[in-house]
Amino acid sequence: MIFNKETAEKTAELLLQINAIKLNPGNPFTWASGWKSPIYCDNRLILSFPAIRNYVRDEFAKNIEKQFGKPDVIAGVATGAIGIGMLVAESLGLPFVYVRPEAKKHGRLNQVEGFLQKGQNVVVVEDLISTGNSSLLAVEALRAAGANIKGMAAIFTYGFDVAEQNFKNANIDLLTLSNYQNLLNLAVAKKYITEQEEQTLREWNVSPSTWNI
């Protein structure tokens, strides 16, 4: 679910402008999972564009407080959401922690890095949602550390059915600045893609694991 349509359209346009999202139905990308995909999203690029990262920061800060209430802590999912999560925490005047994919195997063996007290209300910031599995592993780690998760806010989601089900099963509310549907609508309107390419992109989104095999 998006925070609101205006933000979704604006965010999609900015991501396309800086090539954080690349659409290439004719020459698909290969994801780490092995899936073939006509879209590739690298939201880390946002941090290199001050005006855009400030926009993303401000929209997150405004909408997180509006939708979830002001939490005690902002948590970023490593590594993609550490930068933007810290900017959001700074904007809201809140502490920040980040969550590793797994606990360190040396030192204090931390998976959650930073100061977090049991019972604190946390909003998790993520850069990208695909299946949601890695994002929800971060939620599990925070819950294990005693956090009360108010919800997750992400920059972009592919909108897969499996992700929606995974978040529902985990009882986590997910809200995003933009999503796949708004991206495609804008990409066609702004002539980033043709209507035929739009159809290919929609077909992929229905069954990404079996598309183009």
Short description:
Helix content is 40%, strand content 22%. It has helices at 5-17, 50-68, 82-92, 133-144, 161-169, 180-189, 195-206, and strands spanning 21-23, 29-30, 36-37, 39-41, 73-77, 96-99, 112-113, 121-129, 148-157, 174-179.
Characterization of the model:
By secondary structure, the chain is an alpha/beta fold. It has a single domain (5-206), classed as Rossmann fold, CATH 3.40.50. It is built from seven helices and ten strands. Helix 4 links the parallel strand 8 (121-129) and strand 9. Helix 1 (5-17) crosses helix 6 (180-189) and helix 2 packs across helix 3. The mean pLDDT is 94.
Number of individual domains: 1
Numbering strands along the chain, what is their spatial order in the largest sheet?
7-6-5-8-9-10
Beta-sheet strand percentage? 15-25%
Oligomeric form: single chain
Report helical residue fraction: 40-55%
Rg estimate, integer Å:
17 Å
The name of the CATH architecture is 3-Layer(aba) Sandwich
C-alpha geometry: globular
Largest sheet: 6 strands, mixed
Residue runs with pLDDT of under 50 for 5 or more positions: none
What is the number of helical segments per DSSP (H or I, 4+ residues)? 7
